[in-house]
Amino acid sequence: MTHEYNITGMTCNSCVAKVKTELLKLGDVLSADVQLQSPQAKVIMQKHISIDALQQAISKAGRYTITETGHMQHSMDNTAEEQDDSYYPIFLIFGYITGITLLIQLVQGGFHWMQWMGHFMAGFFLVFSFFKLMNLKGFAEGYSMYDVVAKRFPGYGYVYPFIELGLGIAFLTGFSPVLTNWVTLIVMTVSTIGVVQNLMKKSPFQCACLGTIIKLPLSKVTLFEDVLMVLMSAAMLLNLI
């Protein structure tokens, strides 16, 4: 469900950022769009959160007051009952990448595991970086909520999609396989740590794997993506060394 709120006391973008950070820390908040213009906040919730709880949260950021606008809407993307359906896009993407890379092997008249994994990882990184780059700022803000590096260095969220793009091109062209797989192994292991930490805390963050275009809750599906890349890069390194 989506709620809209008026927030008084915000005077600059720094205020906006502080309020948004505190709202996103709340359980059951999937996303929060905060701005200086009225209505100042649009919050997507998995379950209803009282105005008192919201006020308590933003008070940690400063002297701000939040009130309801009375506008609430239910939509296919936002209802708790339909959260599972939101995974369809990511399953579809995995299916496309898997099917295309298997077709390449079929056309070549044989199946080579290492080559297939290289093509799969190329498709994975190219597609996922594409969605992140469609809204780089939005991705960086979302990623900084749960990634261990982006939390300490917010600029990493702006660099990460380009790392994925570079890895996709490297796997596609066969550039320095040992270096490419080492970078993949390190980057995806670090990403996995952040996902595991937040899953253990049961923190209801939105997954930024497909940027902000397709909204997905952080879940075991996210963990599966990262672990799969770690295992594939480790397998390819063992084969190369």
Describe this structure in words.
By secondary structure, the protein is of the alpha+beta class. It folds into 2 domains: 2-78, Alpha-Beta Plaits, CATH 3.30.70.100; 83-240, no CATH class. It contains 9 helices and 6 strands, in the order E-H-E-E-H-E-H-H-H-H-H-H-E-E-H. The strands form 2 sheets. The protein has a 4-stranded antiparallel β-sheet with strand order 2-3-1-4. It has a two-stranded antiparallel ribbon with strand order 5-6. The protein is elongated, with a radius of gyration of 20 Å. The N and C termini lie far apart (51 Å).
Portion of residues within helices: 55-70%
Share of β-strand residues: 5-15%
- Total of helices: 9
Number of separate strands: 6
Helix-strand string: EHEEHEHHHHHHEEH
Q: How many separate domains make up the residues?
A: 2
Q: Would you identify the regions where 5 or more consecutive residues have pLDDT less than 50?
A: 73-85
Question: What's the shape?
Answer: elongated
Q: Which sequence of strands runs across the widest sheet?
A: 2-3-1-4
Q: What is the distance, rounded to the nearest whole angstrom, between the alpha carbons of the first and last residues?
A: 51 Å
| Mean pLDDT across every amino acid position | 85
Q: What structural class is derived from the secondary structure elements?
A: alpha+beta
Main sheet specs: 4 strands, antiparallel
Radius of gyration, CA atoms, in whole angstroms: 20 Å
What's the short version?
The chain is of the alpha+beta class.
Topology, element by element:
Elements (H helix, E strand, L loop, with lengths): L1 E7 L4 H12 L4 E6 L6 E5 L5 H9 L5 E9 L14 H20 L5 H21 L2 H8 L4 H5 L3 H18 L3 H25 L4 E2 L8 E2 L2 H21 L1
Antiparallel strand pairs: 1-3, 1-4, 2-3, 5-6
Helix pairs in contact: 1-2, 3-4, 4-7, 4-9, 5-7, 8-9
